[in-house]
Structure formats: C-alpha cells, structure tokens
Specification:
Strand content: 5-15%
Structural class: mainly alpha
Number of helices: 14
Order of helices and strands: HEHHEHEHHEHHHHHHHEEH
Helix content: 40-55%
Largest sheet: 2 strands, antiparallel
Strand order of the largest sheet: 1-2
Number of strands: 6
Length: about 350
C-alpha cells in the first residue's frame, strides 16, 4: 500500500476536522437563529414592559426574559451589540408581544415607541376662555388659575393667526379650538393650550385660509364674526342666515347690535338685557360701537366659521328669537318688519306663559 505523503496526510486531517466541525456549525447556527425567533407563533396579548432611565442592556435583557418575551438573555445582548443598537435603547413603557422577534423588539425600543396614559377632554363650541378653563378643571385636566396664567403668556408671534389679536381681552380668545381631544395624562396647562391652538391652525389652514383672503378679511375678523354667530345662533341650520344679517349690516355701516357681545362685556349671560346693559361702556358693546368688536367673544366651531365665510344670500338686516321655545328666529328686511316680528315673538312667549 502506498504510503501517504506528509502533505496529503495534513490535508486529510483538515478534511476530517472540517467534516466534524461543519455539522456542529450548522447545528449551532440553526439553534442561534431559533433563539432570535419569537417565543411563540401566536400574536397574543401584549405585555407591558418598563425600561427605567439608566437601565443597562443586561437589565433590559433580564427584564424581557423574566417577562417571557425572549428566549436567551446572552443572545439578546450579543444581537444588540452586533447590530449597533447598544446605547440606543430608550427608557419608557412598551407593549411587547411574545410573538415578536428580537429584531422587532429592539426596533420598537430604539424608536422609542412608548405607550402613554391619556385622558379624553372636550371643549364645547361657544365657550370663552374663562369657561374653557373652568370646564377643563372640572374634567381634572388643568388648574383653572394656572391655565389662565399660561394663556396670558402666549405671544403674538407664537402663531401666525394671532398677529391681529393684540386688542383682544385674551389674545387666544376664539382660537382654543372646540373639539374632543385625547391628551397625555400628565400634560401641563401650557401643553394643553398648544394642543388647542395647533388644532385651530390645522383646521383653519386646511379649510378656511384661502376663502378668508378671497373675502379680503383678516383671520381675526373672520374668527370674531364666527364667534358672534356661534353665540347668537341656537340652531346650526340658522348660522349662515344669521351670518348674512351681520354681513349685510357691516356692508351698510349699521351697528351689529349683538346681545352676545354685550353679554361678553358684562361677563355674564342674561336672558334679557336691560336698557342700562345696552349702554355698557365697552369696546365689545356693538350697540354703541360700529363694526366688529376688538376680538372674538368665544371659540367658534367649524359650522360657525363656515357660516362666517359662506353666508346665505339674503336682504335680512334683523332677527329676533321666536317665543315658542324652538330656538328659531324671525328674520326681517326692514325695521317695521322687525318690530312686527318682535310683537309676534312676544305673543308666542305669552301664550306659553313665559
């Protein structure tokens, strides 16, 4: 038998060793890959995992293993290191499913996709700043006094739409957009104010800014008019008709004579205004001062904003609330017609015992 040369013997040994190692390598690789797979194939309920500030990769790996979300802590740490995620894991509360891979878990933590506790708040249409502050305090979202303090800290140049609001009693009056919001549980008064103002900016920019420029009116004028419409109209379907009355009066240089503006000046809503009330010395008293008041008297909703921008085409110059409790108004084109409507409304009220 031919004896193997030294060189051949060497390569045969290498081949034998390689043939023994290769299966082990594949076994280890498959096992390693398996360790990175989800703990379960079922996307069940998500587990809440909290990563506290200053947690190390070791702490996070142990936390995830204890929660049954990964199979191997050491592999998690190695994977984090190799993929360049080490030092990028963000603190916070996370919802993680046992059906997620290590890569998916790490991706969520690196991106900081934390969960936050939120609360639902509602701002009704037609509320002014002080009413909003009280309403939010009742919803346990703010401290009323702190909210009013932060409201006064908003500056003209903070938002483009506030540039003409310097004469308003509150600069943000009319701009705290009425809507339903989900806010963070721990949101501060300042943060909530920003949320409301940002919503106004988004709504007005998307739907109304172009029409405002077409009418050659400022945003402040439109919001002021819309706030009066919001407070005067009892029914949504009458908002555009009431808007037409105010537009017609503005065009003919008539006093607006809005009871809602006098109530704002008085600081209270009175069912019936007296002659003395109508003589209140205030720039918001549209029975005494021509044109629009210095600023909005409440936060108008989308319906009132649209009514201010798109009034009905009418010849009406007057309106009076009916006395039948329907919330509807009589509309008139002349003073004599208006006086007839007032008598009609009075008879309706008397027939109901009001």
């Amino acid at each position: 038998m031919e004896k193997l040369s030294g060189e051949n013997f060497f390569w045969r040994k290498i081949l034998i060793i390689f043939s023994l190692i290769l299966p082990l390598f594949f076994i280890f690789s498959f096992q390693l890959a398996g360790e990175t797979l989800p703990v379960t194939d079922i996307q069940g309920e998500k587990n809440l995992v909290e990563i506290t500030p200053g947690s190390s990769t070791v702490d996070i790996a142990n936390n995830l293993k204890d929660a049954g979300l990964i199979k191997n802590e050491l592999l998690f740490r190695l994977y984090t290191k190799v993929m360049g995620y080490d030092g990028r894991l963000q603190a916070g509360k996370y919802e993680i499913s046992s059906g997620m891979t290590i890569e998916e878990i790490l991706g969520k933590i690196v991106r900081g996709e934390v969960i936050t506790s939120t609360k639902r708040i509602t701002i009704p249409e037609g509320f002014h700043v002080k009413q909003i502050a009280r309403h939010l305090e009742l919803q346990e979202a703010v401290d009323k006094e702190e909210f009013l303090k932060k409201v006064e800290e908003v500056q003209l140049n903070d938002y483009w739409f506030l540039k003409d609001a310097n004469d308003s009693s509150y600069m943000v009056e009319g701009y705290l957009f009425p809507d339903t919001y989900n806010i963070e549980e721990e949101a501060s008064e300042e943060e909530i104010i920003k949320v409301l103002l940002n919503r106004f900016e988004k709504v007005f920019e998307d739907f109304y800014r172009g029409k405002t420029e077409e009418l050659e009116m400022t945003v402040h004028e439109i919001v002021t008019l819309a706030s009066i419409i919001e407070r005067e109209a009892r029914l949504k379907e009458e908002q555009s008709v009431i808007s037409s009355v105010f537009h017609n009066r503005l065009e003919t240089n008539m006093l607006l004579q809005s009871c809602a503006t006098v109530q704002y000046a008085l600081g209270e809503v009175k069912p019936v205004l007296t002659e003395r009330d109508l003589e209140t010395d205030s720039s918001y008293n549209t029975y005494m001062h021509a044109g629009l008041p210095p600023g909005p008297i409440a936060s108008p909703g989308k319906g009132a904003l649209e009514a201010a921008l798109y009034p009905e085409e009418t010849d009406y110059l007057y309106f009076v609330l009916k006395g039948d409790g329907s919330g509807e108004h009589f509309f008139g084109k002349s003073l004599s017609e208006h006086q007839d409507n007032r008598r009609k409304a009075r008879r309706e009220a008397e027939s109901l015992g009001n």
